[in-house]
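Q: Okay, next protein. This is CapK protein, putative from Koribacter versatilis. I've checked the sequence twice, so it should be correct. Can you predict the 3D structure?
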Amino acid sequence: MNYGSKLQRSLYFSMPFSVKNICASLYGKNQRRLRYGRFYNEALALLVDSQWWDSSRLLDHQSEEIQKFMSESVLRTAFYREHSAYAQMRSTRTVKDAPILTKQTVRSLQDQLCREELNQLAVRWAHTSGTTGKSLHFPISQYCFQREYAFRELHYMWANVSLLSGEPIAACQGHPVAHYDRKTPPFWVEDSANQLLILSSYHMSPKNFSAYAKALDAWQPVMINGYPSSVYLLALAYQRYGQGRVRPRGIFTTSETLFDYQREAIEAAFGCRVFDWYGNSEMCGNIVQCELGERHLKMEHSLIEIVDEHNDPISPGETGRLLCTGFGNHAFPLVRYDIGDRVVLSKNQVSRCGRSGVLIHEIAGRSEDYIVAADGRYVGRLDHLFKDSQNVVEAQVVQTAAGKVVLRVVRTPEYGAPDERAIREEAALRLGSDTSVEFEYCESIPRGANGKFPFVLTQGRQGGNAATLSRVGIG
């Protein structure tokens, strides 16, 4: 759900839940209209067929898409048209000789990367989650938006689920549906247009677990999707307090690394398979897990190169980073975009399910720890704190003790008091007004051996999320 301006959000939080449900349903009805149109239908029809194509046909299709994409990008985007390295690639069927686009380049030149004549594409504006604190704002065409939902629908179909079936589903992935200082249920709203129960990720505490379990038993969703950290807590709640009435056909996780202990707990609590999904806000990569647990790199979605530190292709069994060319979004075309995520290529590249293409063993580099708020809630996915912060270079959330958080921020020269105030307000909304939030401004944030730093860090942490939950009495 999109809550609009600060005033609109304040108005929403002041409403009784009966009115919130109406708002959620009206919003859901509008989103349903925007998501499921002609482009969605055309893309899904292709995907239902292409999932069974052999590798040769998939490669031919990918080459054709690259050729169309490069022609559009070079001719109608200032950045590519003005750089000689791309000028000779207007009719190419490969991008292997193109320069690599870094995140820094994309952020600094994002206006030049927007396609000219955007008004002809019926665009909507989106932002990255900013897991290092700095988000990117960019346009998405209507074609790309509906196409993305077709890929999601195909994934749900692998569990015999459809978002358009009218069957009840549930989601728990960072929607602030209830005010963060709220102490009593409900911590969810109902979107009747999509038969969707939207559960808050920000009220997960032992004292609220029974309420979440009761809500799930009443709704009986055939599918649950959300962040692994949130769905894992739902699983713990349901295993302890649920009546066993919830038996979904599939659980779909996204946006974070899914750990083995989380998968085991979720599957034990709900009695079904977990289907993991890798995507990104830029919509230039898609890796999905099938009914046999294999991770498939969807070649119809985009071109993903997996390379080592020298930008050479890796071999099966090795770990590499992703260079993404997502040929769906002509409004903001990205060619060989170094998105910062890493994967392990499967040693065995022959699937058991019969689908062709590249198999991925593991998606690395998206793990986060929980923050323990002052009232005992466990809160993950705090990248939202900085989503509108144009003057933040990068940031890190550090938990020094339960209910105490330090925000490490690397600032631009334009950063000022309004920026700090906006971030503090976002922190209070998600962590509650009782949680202490301090700012620590620094020149840079220390990296680990892999050149990265954890966005959420618990001081004294040993063992990540599992250790955090053990310390607070859940694991």
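A: Here is a summary of the prediction. The longest helix spans residues 55-76. Residues 461-475 have pLDDT under 50 and may be disordered.
Q: Noted. On to the next one.
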